[in-house]
Amino acid sequence: MTNAWRGIILLGGPGSGKGTQAAALAEALKIAHISTGELFRNHLKQGTKLGILAKGYMENGELVPDEVTVAMVRERLSEPDCAGGCILDGFPRTIAQAEALDMALADMNRQVMVVPLLVVRDGVLLERLSNRWTCRACGAVFSQFSRPPREGCKKDECDGELYRRPDDEPETQRNRIRVYSEQTEPLINYYQQRGLLVRIDGEQDVEHVREGLLAKVTAVTL
Ligand code: AMP
C-alpha cells in the first residue's frame, strides 16, 4: 500500500478534538490537512463572495449548502500538496457530501483509505465547547484551563489574541450538536458498511488520543 493515496476522513462531533488531532496527524504523516470550517472562516475574514454566503449558516450552527461546500473541497483536493494524501476535517458532513467526495476522488483515481471516529459523549462535547478559545492569528484551539485566554496564543511563538468563536456561544453550540447527530452521524454507518471506520476514545487526554489515532491510522496506511 506504500504508493497508495492516503485519504483520511476524521469524524467526530463539534468539540471532539478533530481540528487539533487532524493537524497533528497531518504533520506526523506529512500530508495535507483540509479543514472546511477553517476554509470558510478564511473566506469570511477576506470578505469573499463565498465567505459572505457562508456567514449566516455558520453563525447559526447550520451547514453551508452541499453544492457550495463540495465545489470548494474539489478545488482544494486538486492542489499540489494533496498529491500524496490528505486529512479531511469537518468534511463530509452529510451523506450527499460523502457521495460527492467518492465521485470526486474516483475522477482523480483516488479513494478514501480510513475513517477514524473520535468518540465523545454529547455532555462532554458541550462542556468542551463552553471552554474553547481559538487563536485569531493561527487558528490554534485551547481550553481555558490549559491556557488562560488573557495570556494569548504562544503556540510556535505565535502571539495571536484568543477569542471565543461566535458559533461556540451556548445557543449555537446546542444547534451544532443537533445538526451533527441528524446530518453527520449517519456517516458512521456509511463508512462502517465500507469497512473503513475505526473508533478512538476521544475522551482521553490529547496526547493519548494522538498516539492511539496515529497507531490505528499507520496500521492501515503504511
Ligand atoms: P467547524 O470548524 O468544522 O466546526 O465548522 C464551522 C462551520 O462551518 C460549521 O458549523 C458549518 O456552518 C460550516 N461548515 C464546515 N464544514 C462544513 C461542511 N462540510 N458542510 C457544511 N458546512 C460546513
What's a concise summary of this model?
The protein is of the alpha/beta class and about 220 residues long. Helices cover about 50% and strands about 15% of the residues.
CATH architecture: 3-Layer(aba) Sandwich
Structural shape: globular
Distance between the termini: 6 Å
Number of strands: 8
Q: Give the count of structural domains.
A: 1
Count of discrete alpha- or pi-helical segments spanning 4 or more residues:
9
CATH topology annotation? Rossmann fold
Bound heterogens, unique: adenosine monophosphate
Mean pLDDT: 93
State which percent range the strand residues make up.
15-25%
Question: What composes the largest sheet?
Answer: 5 strands, parallel
The percent of residues in helical segments reads 40-55%
CATH homologous superfamily caption = P-loop containing nucleotide triphosphate hydrolases
The assigned structural class equals alpha/beta
CATH class: Alpha Beta
- Give the H and E element order: EHEHHHEHEHEEEHHEH
Strand arrangement, major sheet: 2-3-1-4-8
Describe what you observe in this structure.
With 222 residues, this protein is of the alpha/beta class. The protein has one domain: P-loop containing nucleotide triphosphate hydrolases (Rossmann fold). It contains nine helices and eight strands. The protein has helices spanning 18-29, 36-46, 49-59, 66-77, 95-107, 122-130, 170-184, 186-193, 206-221; strands spanning 6-10, 32-35, 85-89, 112-119, 132-135, 141-143, 162-163, 197-201. Strands 2-3-1-4-8 form a five-stranded parallel sheet, sandwiched between helices. The protein has a three-stranded antiparallel sheet with strand order 6-5-7. Strand 5 and strand 6 form a beta hairpin. Helix 2 (36-46) crosses helix 3. The longest helix is centred in the last third of the chain and has 16 residues, at 206-221. The mean pLDDT is 93. The structure holds adenosine monophosphate (AMP). The site of adenosine monophosphate has 17 residues, from helix 2 and helix 3.
